[in-house]
Model the fold of this input.
Amino acid sequence: MGAFNTPERPQVFSGPPLLLVLVVILFCIFGIRLWYLQIYKHDFYLGRAQENRTRQSTMFSPRGIIRDRTGLLLAENTPAYALALVREDCPDIPGTLDQISRWTGQPRDDLQKAFEIGRKRVKHFDEQVIVPNIPFELVALVEAHRQDWPGLAIAVRPKRSYAYDETLAHVLGYVARANEEELNNDPDLQLGDNVGKQGVELMLERMLRGTKGLEEFEVDASGRVLSSRVVSSPVMGEDLDLSISLSLQEVATKALNDRAGSVVAMDADTGEVLALVSLPSYDPNEFVVGISHAKWKELLDDPLHPLQNRPVQSTYPPGSIFKLAVGALGLESGTVTPAKTVFCSGKYTLGQRDFRCWNKGGHGVVDFKKSLRESCDVYYYQLGEQLGVEAISDFSVKCGFGVRTGIELPHERTGNMPTPEWKFKRFGEKWQRGETLNYSIGQGFTLTTPLQAARFVAALVNGGKILRPTLLLSEEPDVQGELPMSPAVRKLVVDAMVATVEEERGTARILRRPGLRIGGKTGTAQVVKLMDKYEKKKTHEIPYKYRDHAWMVSFGEKDGKRFVVVSMVEHGGHGSSDAGPVAGAVLDALLGVQTEGGQEG
Amino acid sequence: MFDRRLVFHINWGLLTLTAILFLVGVMNLYSASTLRMASGLELDAYFNKQLLWGGVGLCVMTAVVLVDYRHLKSVSWPFFILCLLLLLGVVVAGKTIYGAKRWLDLGFFNLQPTELTKIAVLILGARLMTRMEGRLGWVSLGKILLVGLVPAAFVVKQPDLGSALNILLILGGMILFKGVTSSVFKVLAVVIPVMLPFGWFLLHDYQKQRILTFLDPGNDPLGAGYHIIQSQIAIGSGGFWGKGFLEGTQSQLRFLPEKHTDFAFAVFGEEWGFFGAMVLLILFCSFLYQVYIVTMEAKDDFGSYLAAGVFFYFFWQILINIGMVLGIMPVVGIPLPFISYGGSASVVNFCMIGLVMNVAMRRFVFKKG
Done:
């Protein structure tokens, strides 16, 4: 240990001194790492920093409201409360679910399931709705215990409310919670959202729903909100003005008097549907809050099928109302002339078999007008024989029978205008000549919907335009085609319908209103070929399910306005006596409304 | 006792660098103390306290400089034994803060004997090495290691793995500086890597977790991996020029944990960017270089070993802390000298610099008669 003037320290390594090497290594490692983090990966970390401090939350857009043609509210939004969970803010999720179960009385397993299903769909820091629609007392209770249960939140979501319960269920349909499939197919949907499931709520979902907005919050690490800004504003769904008249809908519903059936009232010149009734009906509000299992089963098991939207989803043989089309084809094709007569003895014999007219005594000498007015079957048996099945099918399809109307309602049925090929494909059997006779009077395999019948009658009176029936107000009439008949033929058919109402022995005399031009045609659609034992019985003596369906198609004119009313009572018995008064009541209201005036403006 | 001529030999470079680093640290603490609330910016008291501790440190440093370092040789053993007793006192009557028993309540302030121990080990290590000729053989090595292992064992039980590691690393660095015989070197080069896995079983669960997390931070992003991920986000989002003073969002919004202590460098990196971080890195390297120069120019071996110990005291802290903040080393609770907030640590830092300056000032002084 000496004192040195020129310090010479021992060296471990030859070459540069150890400490210097270490400093250089330190500098290089950190320099490179800093370059990597701050320059090479800068964009990545900048994005992460942004993600860190911002949270986004959805701004819900209210669904468009639905009004009737006079501006009455049919469907609106009322505030409702839901119990929601913010996963990231909730330190004890199982415990919180336990507490929710205690509060709401819902089984713990159900809540767990709802949470598990939902968690994959909820964005970070978004509220996940666990229990939709909680009562206000529970809202107060949860708010009072907010401190004890971090992560719990009360979400305010608009709830759909239908003002007239069952009256408009089949028009409006309803909204309910989006299911798995709907969520998968629509990226805009979030868990807990309601979507249209039936009626115009389903068909016009896009228009009604609106667009959600996005709000961005700057938060600190504990989630405290420091500032917020609206990234995109929510756009409210479009309001819907329906062509439906609530008052007319109520009249038609009342007129059906709790029987299963349909009523369609339509403006013949625009295609606007003024009333569309299907009974029995259901309360759409029950679906909005989540229908109970028991109630759902009850609706499904009801033999009268309340969920069936009859005017568009039920198909029936048209019965005698089909004679309007077959008769028109006879005239149009020149097979008959208005003056040409047929003798009805009460039956028509084809080969070995007798085809009866509904009037067993026979109609005697029958010309075209009388054939419709008194609905002579024999006249049409003979005409059908001459026309042939293909011609009838072809013509009736052109008239819109067996063709969907395209109204804004879901699951519309097509119906069926049979042909020999169709029968062979369907049953592997040959078409029988007798079937053509049944076809001519609208029985057998022939199937149509009440709305198709309404579209056809509207075309008869509006100058031959086949219009798409619509539930929307102030839509331009959508012309789907022309009736395949000349104006002269059309006039003969329409006049015959008026005669059916106006003249002695007319089958639709029940619709006669002095001073008003009204036309009609009845129809009785056989459900099964009536068994002999019921043949002589009165309707009320025949078991319900074997009774015939009763049709009445009609139109009324007043002050240049033309309206079509179709009523159809399932298993109603006879067109005139059962479906007639229903159509009559609706026509009264329609034409009465006209005389009071002003409401259509 | 104090020769006026010594003033002319003061290592101004080291002093200047120390002052700059300390002031950068205080400035950064000002920003790291800032919390952004809905109502605006709010300040915690850390940066004021740090200034106070800096003042205390300066006094300690001056005191250390005044006494010729050669006198330390004679007090090295008593000082070391005193530290061991204090550590024992912590075990018996220590104060528990945040689940760790590291402090002795002396009434007016809380003493952390671990910090004193670092100094004691350094001085004793230097003294022992001075007596050993040439490179270290097995016996010498064993003696020196014992000086580190005994206090480290106390410290690790506190538990304070960071400081225990620091103590051993200081000694380890000094041993490397002094040099070992080639036979020792060859054996250690084989044995140490082989022994490392066994060290795993000596670790606490949370320490194991830290190492596992370091290897895969994404494994537990909101738990143990949070620190690593957040500090890299803060630094990376700074970019080249940084977000500007007081503009760092990650620290002000509290995403960055321990931002005024262990992760203070991340705050600096976020606000001053690559440019600022490189400047700070250059400052640190220059600082280390200055200490290295002192080891080379010291008048005697004791001074040289003392300076080398101080070099490693700072070197390991800088390496481990910045390495941790940059995500290339596991999370170990070791602060960054001058930049991290810490009362005891600041005082010890100044004390260490005082030691080096002491050695540097007296490089031309001849041994007294």
